[in-house]
Amino acid sequence: MSLFGALSTAISGLTAQSTAFSNISNNTANSQTVGYKGVNTSFIDYLTTSSSNQDQSGSVGTAAQYLNEVQGTIEQSSDPLALAIDGQGFFAVSETTSTSISGAPNFNSQQYYTRAGDFQLDSQGYLVNSAGEYLNAWQVNSSTGEVNTSTLAPIQVQQRQFQPVATSNVALIANVPATPSATSNLTSQVQIYDAAGTAHQLSTTWTQLSTNNWQLTITAPDNASGATLGSVDVSFNPNGTLSGLSNGTGLLTVNSSTTEAGVTITPTFNGNTQSINLDLGAYNGATGVTQFAGTDYDLESISQNGSPPGSFTSITTTDTGAITANYNNGQSVTIAQVPIITFENADALQSQNGQAFTATQGSGAAIAQDQNQNGAGSLVTGSVEESNTDIATQLSQLIVAQQAYGANAKVVTTASQLLQTTLDMKQ
Questions:
Q1: Which of 256, 278, 303, 391 is the most buried (most CB within 10 A)?
Q2: CA distance readout (Å), 188 to 91, 173, 203, 286, 394
Q3: Cα distances (angstroms) measured from residue 364 to each of 76, 90, 346, 368, 371
């Protein structure tokens, strides 16, 4: 082994330890970075000549050992929109290239992936993490609830107003007394809504005609043709269950079902006639309206499916990945479903800025799937995944790298002195 060879080998050692020191420095600096994945340093021996009777000095190189699949600690966050993945997988995110005149972001066509789930709602209605990356998800049809799993796109709350829903069904659950008292109040009210979201009062009043026979009268003060909408005769079996509906008058029509007891009501509000089904339960069953023993009207519930207009108030996430927009009229709409992205070899992903990664040939193609499916982890709401680096481990490696660097530097100094000694030799 020549002195020049020893010098060259020691210098490669200095370079390798510098790389290790750089990785340790990066890991230590990002020990508190949400979703950060550490990098270890592997040392590789390179030979020049090596045989059973001859060995020439070589060099040492380094290779990055990515820890993308090592789980970081999941900690609870004060951010209700924060998400963490317990197990394998990544969030799909987009990065912006520019901003339009209106302030809307223009997105890079490149797909990115991250474990940094500290998402918050920005002024444009997007879910964005602290690195400025926009959470992608499958879009959900707000009318049908169908999830479009063919496309991933940034989540945005676009419906800032909840469109009013006209009441189409009123369900009454109550017991009319078999022997009503003279003072029993047999009337109940429910607030219903027309197509414009205007509220109207609908009242039901029971009048006993004879044993097991009643007349149900429906009124609505705002109805165009008068407050009284009509009436229907209601009969009960001796055991108190509903046996039949008949003689619908006015704007009331008895439904034709032989199992479900219902009456169609057609009031007119603000010039528009709407059809409302009054659900009284099932014939010959103890659901809906009954006539059991007692002297007072027992109203359990009277509900309807309409709603007034509403303004957007907040977004909530669930551990199933559903993103729901909430409105001040009490309504909620699921707008997106967050999938978990998995890879055949996540450690081969290419690191990018902001704790993000891009797919490579070595990582394999991205696979989007529901949580807890085919090896994908589960979602944890209101939490974030911390960096997977450990300060104690990094400091220990730092000491080793420092000593190794010093030793290589000593070899360089010694080789230099020996070379100088050789040069100083006299003939």
A1: 278
A2: 51, 11, 6, 20, 71
A3: 32, 14, 8, 13, 19
pLDDT digits (tens, 9 = 90+) for 360-411: 999 999 999 999 999 999 999 999 999 999 999 999 999 999 998 888 888 8
- Angle (CA) 75 80 84, round 5°: 40
Which helix (H) or strand (E) element contains residue 151?
Answer: strand 147-154
The DSSP output letter for 346 is: G
Q: Cα(120)–Cα(187) distance, rounded to whole angstroms?
A: 48
Which residues make beta-bridge pairs with 242?
A: 236
User: Does residue 340 contact residue 371 with C-beta atoms inside 8 Å?
Assistant: yes
pLDDT of residue 328: 93
Q: What is the largest CA-CA distance in the chain?
A: 139
> What would the pLDDT profile of 120-159 be if each residue is shown by its tens digit?
999 899 999 999 999 999 999 877 889 999 999 999 988 7
| Two tokens, residue 33 | 């970075």
Supply the pTM of this predicted model. Answer: 0.78
Rounded to the nearest 10 degrees, how much is the dihedral formed by the CA atoms of 113, 118, 119, 123? -120
Q: Which helix (H) or strand (E) holds 263?
A: strand 260-265
Instruction: Residue 317: count other Cβ atoms within 10 Å of its Cβ.
Output: 23
